[in-house]
Amino acid sequence: MTREEVVSKIKGIFLPILTPYSRRGDIDLTAFRRNLRRYAKEGVNGVIVAGSTGEGPYLTEDERLRLLDVARPIIRSPQLLMAGTGLETTRQTIQLSREAIARGADAVLVLTPAYFKPRMDSGALTTHFRAVADGLPRPLLIYSIPQFTGIQMEAATIARLSRHPNIAGLKESSGNIEFLRDVMRRSRSKFRVLAGSALILLDALEAGAAGAVLGPANYIPGLCAKIYDCYCRGEKESARALQRRIEPMVRDINVRCGVPGVKYAADLCGYTGGMPRAPLAPLTSAERGWVKAALKKARIPLGRRDVV
Fold first, then answer.
1. Would the N or C end of the chain have less CB density within 10 A of its end CB?
2. Could you tell me which CATH class the domain 3-233 is placed in?
3. Cβ–Cβ < 8 Å for 143, 110
4. Marked catalytic residue, from 9, 11, 171, 263
5. pTM for this prediction
6. In the annotation, is 171 catalytic?
7. In the chain, what are the domain boundaries?
C-alpha cells in the first residue's frame, strides 16, 4: 500500500493484540499466531502489536520485531498492521520505527516519552514527534495515555503536530471525551483521531473520531466491530444498545483488572491470553470471579469466540 492508502484506511476498530507467554516467560509465538488468525476474521480493521494491552513496555525491541514478523503474513490489506515503537529517546524511536516498517508495519504508534516528565513540555514533545515523523517512510500516530505516562499533551500541541505531512493521527486513551472533541476542533480535517477507551466509543464516533483502538476487542472483537458498523450504517439505536451492553463489562474487566483481566477474559472466550509478564501479577481468585461474572452479565458465551 502507498502512504496515502494507509492513511485512508486508518478508520474503524483496531485491536491492540495481547502477547501470550510460555511457562518460561518467553513469547508463545504459536498462541500469538493462532489468536491473530482468529482476530483477522472478526471484523476488525487492523491490529496493533506491542501496544499497552500487548504489554509493549515489557517487550524488548527484538521481541516487538518478532511479533511483527509473525503478524505480517496474516494481517493482509485492507486490514492494517501497526506497531508500538515509542521509546524514551528520539534516536531510539526512529531506529525501532524504521526497522518495524522494514518488517512490514503499515504505520507506527509512538508513545509520548515520559521519564524526564518535568522537561517533557510542549516544545520538547513537538520537536520529538516532528523529528521521528521526518525520519520515517510510513505514517506515524501519536499515542497519548496520560494515566500511565503522566504526560498530558495539550490539545494545541497535538493540533500543531497534526499539520505535519507524516503525522497521520492520534490514539487518545485518557477517556476524556471533551479533550477529544477539543483536539478534533483544532486539528486539520484529515487528521485521524482514534479513541483508546471503549467507554466513550460511540460518543467519540459521534464527535467525529475515525475509530478506536480497543483493549476489549481481545475478548469481544465482534461486538466492538458491530458498534462501529451499526454507527456507520446509521443504526444509532442499535449502536447505543450495544454500547450500554459492554460498558459495565469494560469497567469490571479493563478498568478494574487491567491487562491481566483482559488476558483472563480472552482465555474464557476461547482465545489464548495466559499470564501477564512480571512485575504485573496474575489475577487473584476473587478478581477472576469478577471477570467471569462481568462476561456472563453481558451475555458473552464462554469457551468460544463472541457472538453478537
1. N
2. alpha beta
3. yes
4. 171
5. 0.96
6. yes
7. 3-233
